[in-house]
Batch of 2 targets.
Target 1
Amino acid sequence: MDIFFDKAEARFGERVVLEPVSLRLTQRRIGIVGLNGSGKTTFSRMINGLVQPAAGRVLTNGCDTAKDGARVRAMVGYIFQNPANQIVLPLIRDDIALGLQSRRLGKAERDTAVMAALDRVGAAHLADRRAHELSGGEVQLAALASVLVTAPGIVIMDEPTNQLDLRNRNLVARTIGALAEDVIVISHDLPLLADFERVLLFHEGRLVHDGAADETLARYRALAT
Amino acid sequence: MNFSQPAGSGPLHRLPPAAKLAVLFALSVLVFALSSAFALGVIAALVLGTTLLFCRPALRQWLASWPLLLTIALVAGWTAFAKDPETGLVLLLRLSALSLFATTVTTTTTIGQFIETITALARPLERIGIGNAADIGLAIGLVIRFVPEVQTRYRAVIEAHRARGLKIRPATLLVPMIIGTLQGADDIANAIDARCIRPEHAKPN
C-alpha cells in the first residue's frame, strides 16, 4: 500500500476532529490505537474517502480521495466498528454477492466468487445463514468476506475484536494474520497489534506517536494510566 | 407479508421469482376485476390450499401479522355496515387472498432474488434512459430489508419503556424509533459507499 497524508485535517462543522497529519504508510500491517474520541476512526475513514479532508489531501495508492472517491473505495475495503451495520441483505450469500452487482457477472461466476471469499476466511458454512443468527465472530467473518469478494488491495478493520469472546477473538485474529491483503487495524486489543510493523497513536485529535509496535503500545499504556 | 426470509427448498421456493411476481400481479388484477363473492371465494380457497400444501410457514406468518388482518377486518366490516354484507364479503375475500399470496411470495423468495429480478425487469427502463436498473433493484431490496429492522427497533423501544417503568406515549415511542431508523439508514448508506455497491454513483466528493 501507499497512503500519503499531506497536512490532511478533518473537521465536523467548525470542530477540528483531526489536526493536520502528514505521513506516508507503506507497511503491510499497520495498527492504530488511542483513547475513545481520539480521531482514530476519522483518520481511517479518510484513507478510503468516507471522510474528506477539510484541508490538505490524502492520496491512496496515488489516487486523491477527494477527487476519485469511488476508485479509492474500490481499492480499500472497510469493516465498520459494528460489522452487523454493513451487512445490507439478510442472507449472507446474497449480501456478499451484492458487492459484485456492478460487475454484472453471471450467476455461476458470482456464486463461485462468493464461496471463494467465504472460503478464504474459513466461513463457507455461513453462506446460507441469516445475519441476525450469527455470533459476533461470525458476523466479523461475513463482513470480511463481503469486503474481500471485491478484491481490494487494502483492508481497514475498525475494532475487529471488540465485544468478542476469547474463542471468536482468536478466530478473527488468526484470520487477520492470514490475509494476503495489506491491513490497517484500529484496536484496543493490544496483543492483536503486537506483531504489526507499525503502530500509530492518536490522542485528542492529534497523531502523537508513530513507530514500532512495542514502543507505541508502551506509550499508549502510559497515556491510558 | 413476511420479510424474515426463512430458508426453504419446496416447489414454491424453486419457482423463478419473476414467475411468482407475475402471478402476484395477475392475481391482483383478477381479484379487483371480479366482483362476484363466489368467484372470489374460489380464488381465496385456491390460494389457501396452495399455501397449505406448499408453504405452511407463510400461513403462520400471515396469521401472525395481526395489524394487517385487523385492518382488513375493519375495512370489510365497515363496508358491510355502510353498504351491504355482500360488498363487505367481496372486500374481505379480495384483500385476504391477495395478502396471503403476497406473504407466500415473500416467504419463498429471498431479498437477493427480489433485487436480481427487479433489476432485470428494470433494465429496459435503463436502456431508454429512465433510472438505473441496479439502483431500482437495490432501493426496493432496502425497503424490504428495513421492515424487520423497524419491527425490531419497535420491540426494543417498548422493552426499554417497560424496563424503566415508563408509560408508552406516541412521542416517546416515535422519536427514538425515527432517530434509530435514520441512524440505521445512515450506516447502510456508509456501507454501500464503502463496499462500492454502486461505484458509478459514489458519494460526491
Target 2
Amino acid sequence: MAKLRELDVELVVVDDTLREQRIARDLLRVDRSIIPVNLIYPPNYPEEPCILLEGLISPGDALKVLARMELIQNGSSESLASLPTP
Amino acid sequence: MKLILKTKLPLVAVMLTVLAIGLANTNAQDLFLKDQFGDPGIISDHDPVTLSSEFKITTGKRTGILAVTAEIAPNWHVFSMKNTKGPIPSKISVAESKDYKLIGKFTADRKPELKSEAGFDAPCEEFEGTVTWSAPIELAETVDPKNLVIEMVYNGQSCVTNGGCIPLTLDVAGKFGGFDDQLVAKPDFVQAPVKIETFQPKGLHATIKARMVRAAGTDEPISPGDAIKLEITATPDTSDTWHIYSYSLEKTQYMSTIVGFTETNGWKVKGPTVSEAPEQGEAFGVAAFYHHHPVTWTFEVKIPDSAESGKSYPFKGAIGFQTCTDSGCDAPAGVTFEANIPMGRASIIPVKWENSTYGTAKKADKAELIDKNSGTDPLPVVPAHQSDEDPQNKESASPVLVEDTPEEIEAMAQLYNPEQKIKYLVSTEMDENPVGSGGTSSRNQTTFWTAIFGAFVGGMLLNLMPCVFPVLGLKVMGFVMQAGSDPAKIRKHGIAFTLGLVVSMWILAGIILTVKLAMGQDINWGAQMGNPYFVCAIIVLLFLLGLNMAGVFEIGTSLSSVGGKAQQKKGYSGSFLSGVLTTLIATPCSGPFLGAAMSYTLAQSAFIAMFLFTVFALGISAPYLVLSFFPALINKLPKPGPWMETFKVTMAFALFATVAFFMQAFGGQTGVGGLSWLAMALVVIGLAAYFYGNWSESSVKPFKRWTFGHIMPALIAAIGVWMCYDAANQVSIVSQIHNVGGLEWQKWNPGKIEYSLAKKKKIIWVDYTADW
C-alpha cells in the first residue's frame, strides 16, 4: 500500500457488480471475461505492455509488478531528463 | 431493604415525625437563634438526630437485615457515610458479639443530596428528614432472635443549614422486628474491575473504546430508574495527523461520525454531548468539523422504573465514521457495539466491538439530540461543487471513490476504442519479457488455436473411452465389409460417417448454446464463472461425472445397444446414421470431456463455440477417417481389455482435479465458510451417487431398487443440492480490499485509462471487480 503511494499510482476501480455490457466489452480487450482482473499500465504504455493479474492477488505478485513499473517509471523519466533542452 | 421501609417504617416514621415536630416547636426556633450567634454546642441535651433500629430475619434462615433509621430535625442534616475531607461522615459501629456478625456494609436507602456548604471546598453529601441505613447480618446458630439486642454506636456530625455543626455520638439498640420471607439481603456492592477494550476498527486510522456507566456514580449498581451514560471515545492516529469528523446528523459532503442504536429495549437515548469542540477545517472543498485529539461522545440512556432487577438487558448500536489526513481519507468505516446490562449487578459495563459498515450506523435509529448545536456541526454544510450524482449512486458513493465530471467523461469517451486490444503480459510472463523487450500483443489467437488443438485431441481421445473404443474397430471393419475390397468405397463410407458425426455434434452444440442464450443475458458466457451459483453447478456436474468414471455409478448403459440396430442398415446413409449414433452413444462417455471443455468453450462467442464443436467432432472421427483410408492399420490397434478400465478411472482423477480447481474459484467468491459447506455438500452428493449406483440395477428387487436406488438417493441429492445453493449464498468480502490504506480510487469510465495515460504519465492500476 505504501508502495502505491510512493509511486503515485493512479487507482481505478471498475465496478462490474451490475454486469454491464460496456465493462464486459472492455474486458474482452484483454481476452478476459472472468473477474477479478487487475491491469497495471506502465506510464509509457503502449511502449511497455500492461501486466495482467487474475484472481486474488498475493502481495508478492503486486510488489513484483510494482517493482517493474517503478523501473519503467524511473527509466522513462530519466530519458526525458536526458533530452537536450532548447 | 426497600421492602422493610414500605411495610413497617411508615408507621414508625409518622410517630417519630410527630415527635420531631413537637421537638422542633419547642427547640428549633430557639436553636436557630442560638446558632446565629455561632454557639450550637449548648443544645446537647436535645440531639437533632433521633435513632431507632430493628433487624429482620429471613424466614427459615439465619441471615437478615439490620436497619438503623435516623430522624433528623427540620433544618438539620447529617452526612453520608462517604469519607471525605469535609465534614465528619456518618458511621455506625456494631458491638462485637459471637451471636451475630455483619456480612456487609451499611448502605443508605436513598441518595444523599449534594449541597455546597460554607467552609467546605467540595459539595457535601447530606441527608435531611429521615434516612435509613441497613446492612446484611448473619446470626449464630444458637441464638434466638427474639431475645437478641444488637448494640451499636452512631458517630457523625449534624449541622444546621448554612449554620454551625455539632458532633454526634449516639447509642442505639437494634431489636428483633420479625421474620420475613421476602427479605433479600442486598450484598455489598463493589464494582469489579472492568476491562474496557480498545478496538481498532478495520479501515480506520483511529482506535475506539466505549463503556456504559451509571450516571450517578459507580458506588451502586445500575438499577431500574437510573440514568446511564454511554461514553464513546475515539482516538485518531497521530502519526500522520489523522482526524475524525464530528458527530452530525446533517447531510455533509464528508462522512460525519454517526451513532445509531439497533437495540435499546425502548429506552430513551439522548445525546451526544462532546468532550471537546470540533476544529474547523476543510474536506473535499467544503468546511468540515473534526477532531484531531481523543474525543468522547456521551449519550444518556434512561432506564425506566419498569425494568426488572436481576434481568440482563441488551444494548446495541453502530458507529459510522471516517478518518482523514489533510491530503487523503480512509474509506468510511463502521463498527457495531454490543453491551449487556445486568440490572442491579454492575455499575460499569464494557462493550464488545465488531467491524461493520458505515451504512449500518446510517440505517439505525439515532439518539434524540439534547441541543441541536451541542458538540455537533455548528454550520450547515455548503457543497463546493455541484452535486451531479444520480440518486441511485448517492447511497453507495463514498468520497474515496472519486468520480469524473460529465465533461471529463465526455472527453474520455472520445479516446475510447473498445475494439482496440490492450497490450499486456500475464504475471507469469513478466520474467521472460523484461522491461524494454516491448512485450507481445494480445494473444487472443494463441488461446484460440490452443483451444482448437485441444478440441481436436480431446475428440480423438474420446475414442479411447470404453463405450466408444470397442465400436471403433467394429465400425471400420463394417466399412471394409460393405465396400468389399474397393478402397474408394471405404473412403466414402468414412466420409459419410464423419459427416454424420459433425452434423449431430452441431445439433448438440446448437441445443446447448440455445439453452445458454435463454439462460443468460446478452453477455459472454464466461462471465458466469464470476457467479458462485454457476461455479457451484459446474463443480457438482464435474464431481458427478468423476464419480461416474470412477465406477461409483453408471449412466446411459441402455443407449449403447441402440447402435447395433443402425449398423444393420446398408449404404452410405447407414454410415451417416452410424456417425450420428456414435455421437449419441459417445455423449454419456464424452460428458466428462465436454464438461471440462465446456467451461472454455462457453467463454467464447457462439460462432467460435460452434467452430470448436466442429473441430471436436472431427477429432472424434479422425481415427475412423484414417482407418478408412488405411484399412490395414485396424490389425495394429490395441485390443479392448482391462487397461481401458484403468484408463477410465485414471481420467476420473483428472476430473476430480478439475473439481478442485473450480473449488478454488468458488472459495474466492464465497470465503472459507462457503467453500467448506460446498465440500460437505459434495460428500452428501457422493453418498447419493453411491446408493444410486448400488441399488438401481435391474437385478435388484423392485421394492429395494425404488427405495434405496431411486427415492433415497434423490432425497440425499436434494439435500446436497440445497447445501450447494446455500454455500453459494455466502458472500465474500473481497470488495472490501478497496477500502484499506486510505487510498483514493477513481471510478472507471470508457476511455478513462487512455485519457489518464495521455494526460498524467502515471502508473495506473485498474481493478475490475464486483461487489459479490
